[in-house]
Amino acid sequence: MRMYEKMILVVGGAGYIGSHMVKALLDHGARVVTLDDLSRGNSDLLPGGEFRKGDLGNLQILEDIFSQNNVDAVMHFAAHSIVPESMKYPLKYYENNVAKTIILLQAMAQHGIKYFIFSSSAAVYGEPSTVPIKETHACQPINPYGMGKRMIEQVLKDSDATYGLKYVSLRYFNAAGADNSGMIGERHSPETHLIPLVLKAALGEIDQIKIFGTDYPTPDGTCIRDYIHVSDLIQAHLLALEMLLGGGESAVYNLGNCRGYSVRDVINTGQLVTGRHIPIVEGERRPGDPAVLVANSDKIRSELGWEPMYGDLEDMVRTAWIWHQYDGKRRK
Q: pLDDT tens for residues 72-99?
């Protein structure tokens, strides 16, 4: 898969998944412009390409980028993504994740840019009635984060019908791990994702891990999630982009490993990989958290030939552990 001289705008490219995407695009011969306001991203994670600091809702910045570069496709990773925060500040989430994305799509339409890869989420499904979840499952989000993703999927469908915008919406389950180089990985401030928190506890950067809810209808009472290695996630994006650039039609795909791990499973795996004790404290459930989210990813496997390489949780935690040790030393 080579993308010689294709110009790709990566919105939110200084974030966790976005920085891995920029690296992969450059490795595959593409030219890359990253747009990120650095409110949640980190410029030191960017491995190369052109960088523009700015907001995806700033029409002038978008006009400058599109008029100065012959952009072939846009990949969008610049969403706020903390479910409890979305419950507390829904308007903030709808403004950034919905309203500003629409501004981006309007600018694309005005410049005739026809290809769009969207970072969606399993949160569009809400509380699933069947597991594993297929793309045909009803979408009934239970938090503003998931609702915003669902809204944009509808906007994309309408934009395809009206403007001929071709898109792929990738419904992530839980991204995990880090690039094999150990040079880029997951860093958020504040950190809310379970695996990096577990590893921070192992490093002594935080005192303990809080388990939010131990009374879910699961084998050990804690939430179950489907984890997917970030490198496998990125491979799916490359396949989706290649499909669109080759004349393919718009599509929606789940991205997961079709296997669920509980919160306690993740903590135990963290202890196994690091060889360190990780203190825990049990707390109440958080609003907006479904009990079980596990993907059925058969569609993207059959249609795009996607095959994840890191299906085991231990592999994901191990690559993340290498990154967190490196990043922790670098930031001291």
A: 999 999 999 998 899 999 999 999 999 9
Among the listed residues 11, 40, 237, 8, the one whose alpha carbon sits nearest the alpha carbon of residue 104: 11
8 A C-beta contact, residue 7 and residue 33: yes
Q: Tell me if 234 sits within 8 A of 310, measured CB to CB.
A: no
Instruction: Please state which CATH class domain 7-176+229-255 belongs to.
Output: alpha beta
Q: Which residues pair with 328 in a beta bridge?
A: none
Q: Would you say 262 and 25 are in contact if contact means Cβ atoms under 8 Å apart?
A: no
CATH of the structural domain 194-225+258-330, one choice from 3.90.25.10, 3.40.50.1000, 3.30.70.1230, 3.40.50.2300: 3.90.25.10
What span, in angstroms and rounded, lies between the C-alpha atoms of 280 and 196? 14
Residues with a known catalytic role = 145
Show me where the domains of the chain are located: 7-176+229-255, 194-225+258-330
pLDDT, tens only, 259-309: 999 999 999 999 999 999 999 999 999 887 889 989 999 999 999 999 999
Q: Please, what is the angle between helix 100-110 and helix 144-163, to 10°? A: 20
